[in-house]
Amino acid sequence: MFSKINYFLPLLFYCLLLPSTLASEEIKLLTYNTHGLPKIFTGDDPGKRFPLIAKEINRYQISLLQEDFAHHELLLNNLKEGSSAERGNESQFTFCPFCSGSGLTTISNLEKDWELEFYSEAFNTCSGWLGKLNDCFASKGFQLIRVKSPSGKQFFILNTHLDAGRHDSDRKVRENQLNQISTKVKQKLIDEALILAGDLNLKWNDAQDRSLLENFKNDLDLSDPIDGIQVERGWPVIDYIFYRNGEEISFEVLESGQDLNFQTEEGHLSDHPALYLKLKIN
Prior knowledge:
Helix content is 29%, strand content 27%. The protein has 282 residues and is of the alpha+beta class. The strands form three sheets. The chain has a six-stranded mixed beta sheet with strand order 3-4-2-1-13-10. Strands 5-6-7-8-9 form a five-stranded mixed beta sheet, with no helix packed on it. Strands 11-12 form a two-stranded antiparallel ribbon. Helix 5 (168-188) runs parallel beside helix 6.
């Protein structure tokens, strides 16, 4: 009798724990515009900044980077062992020696039993070759990542960087780029959970930009857990992290805000804030 009890009690204890283990998992995500233009344009020392950026990135499971243009190898050389990096789309203008790809990079520090599948797409439009912040020299776009957790839960992450500039033509291009993202999400992600983040270059305090942003959020049913934290710390609000629940997966926000470790006594490591989101995946 006692031998049977001794056998079944550990089994019962294991079975009781198993559902709770599989019921929820957590992920901590960063979005960061690294200000990674060539040194001649940055006005500071990227060679000093990027190793420090990599050191802070090492604390995150997923890091969504923008403007990772000229110092990518320096970034890679300072990531911890086991990190993986996936760059976004390449330049659409192979004839242009001064042109670049999207500048998007996703860094993963997830355990090996997580699965990641990447899709990249360049935007169909841009504004500015000589003037209007010269956006066309970079083939901006978005990365769409399918994530599968160890327990089999599937959701998606989208990393993007929209056109900059304050002209009407710049805003029209941003609207087209948002529509391109919305179309792809609706095609590929029917009833799927989604985290969408990046430098949208949509100013929160600009009425026209704000209208584009709200329409985009409503179109994809996105929630904003950051809610203007940048304003409290003196940053212009153009970087965002949004999310939505899926039919089978829901997110619970555990933490969100600005990571103040991305700075030294000399100042911030970029001209953008480092925003983060920690989620429980149910």
